[in-house]
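Something for you to look into today, if you have time. Just paste the record in under my message, thanks.
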Amino acid sequence: MKTERDEQFHQFVVSRRAALVRTATLLTAGDAHLAEDLVQSALTKLYVAWPAFQRADNPDGYVRRVLVNALTDERRRWWRRSERSMAEVPDRVAAAHHEGDVSDGLRVALKELPPRMRAALVFRYFYDLDVADTADALGCSEGTVKSQTARALDRLRTVLGVNASLATL
């Protein structure tokens, strides 16, 4: 038997899941499988804390914070630390790689950043949040957002070897 809480949560998931997956995909630098895991973890935590979510002054900020916390928790898992990323799957023909694909290069460069730096960039530049809203999502001070963003942009410029196009960010 569905309760009113279950129905409200169901409606929330139906209306917001796609946006949560998009945000999680950006936070994971394009790792679709990890993004799905993050959304599932975040939705589980959100269901448990549903009354607090409903009382929140900024529900969007609350959800962003839950996603960032889920990413941080995921990175701390022992089996994640023992996984080794590989550029190509062994025993498979290499996929055609297009040199100069900026979005692919940006995705790879984003993977080089620590999760909180990546989250600062995602919220500031992909979602155009101001410093205060980004700080709220990350659970840190506005000064930390500014320094994390500046350091992240410097790293991206170094990794991408681009000075002019990112200088405007």
